[in-house]
Amino acid sequence: MSEVVADQNANEKMTLSKTVGVLSAVFSLASAIVLSYGLRDLVDSRTTRAFFLLSIFVLSRAFMYVTLDEYAAHAERSYRKRWRTVSSYRLATSTPGEIHSLDTAIDNLCAEPALAVVQYCAATSLLALAPIFYFGGWLCVLIVVVLMGLSIPAYISAGRATVRSLEDFHQRRSSLVARQLRLLRSMTDLRALGAVDFGADEIAAASDAENRSVLGGVRVAIRSTLVTEFMSGVSVGLVAMVVGIRLWHHSIGLGPALGAVLMTAEMYTALRRYGSEFHRRDDAKTARLLLSAGHEIHTNTGTWLLEVDAVSTAAPALPVSFQLGDGGRIRLQGPSGVGKSSLIDTSLGLREPVSGSVRCSAKRIGLIRSDNHFVVGSLRENLSLGDRIDDVRIRDVVCS
Questions:
Q1: How does pLDDT run across 234-254, given as a tens digit for each residue?
Q2: Which of 69, 174, 199, 324 sits at a 20 to 30 Å CA gap from 346?
Q3: Dihedral of alpha carbons 361, 365, 370, 371, sign
Q4: What is the DSSP string of 314-381?
């Protein structure tokens, strides 16, 4: 269906993802302070209080990680289900290479909520500069800011290299999928000609090229990780050195000193995650453009389920207008090739009209074609397609 219909709850989902990102950053920074004072109490032999604070830290971190994982999995399932439903017609009518591109685009777009969480978590983690200054002083803040500035070009370079590696991988994977399907469809001819080994060698060569592309991507990821780990390690180490000297001269307590070091580590952890995921934002934007290209339908705010206003599906065709409400029926009659199927596809957003406009409500609209196929099984299994639907509901739909 259209991008508008598919994304009817996308704004709410992204707002929730941003909120989750902000809260996770605040939660991480607060837990770092709890950990620092728990370790201080442990050193000072205040065992009961130390055990209490460390237990709070462990339990809160475990709760946060489980919650974030569950939210990311739920958001990904929701996005995947929505966009696979939206793109079902295009997936069914595309070439093998296009199928892989569409499937990859759906996978990339499913990462949008998780990317929003990472982005806003990284932005909120910059608030750690205030407690770092309060605990460790201006020199600690200066070290963190300077090294952070030096690491930005490394993040950008690693991100660009990753994008190039992914483009090469997807191109080779699409070629491999297309070759496999072509050879499978021609298997009878290949057997008759005695050329099965030739087909197998061709697939093996394409698979080797894909594997080399994957290894190249792994090398890029390792280089990116080494750079970011080095920058964060140097930053945390220098901050620890500064607060250690102050601790030696008794100008700072153990709790604040540990707080400055742990805050620096937390901030770099969030920034490192954002840096490693930065290139995926462009992938998600490209995927959205690919999946929504040529299928825009305006949302209808009226009472009609579907409104077609002066729509033409071909240059010489006369414009067609109609309105369809819940339970309504329209009959399209004409000889074969006159454009009935094209008009239906255009009305549902599967094709772009030559002229005119289409408006639909936010309700889902199903499509049953004359060339649909039945799966092997009962009529009930064909109607439910694996969903748990009771007999009363199926009977009501069939008899309506």
A1: 888 888 898 888 888 888 888
A2: 174
A3: positive
A4: STTSPPEEEEE-TT--------TTSSHHHHHHHHTTSS--SEEEEEE-SS------TT----SS-HHH
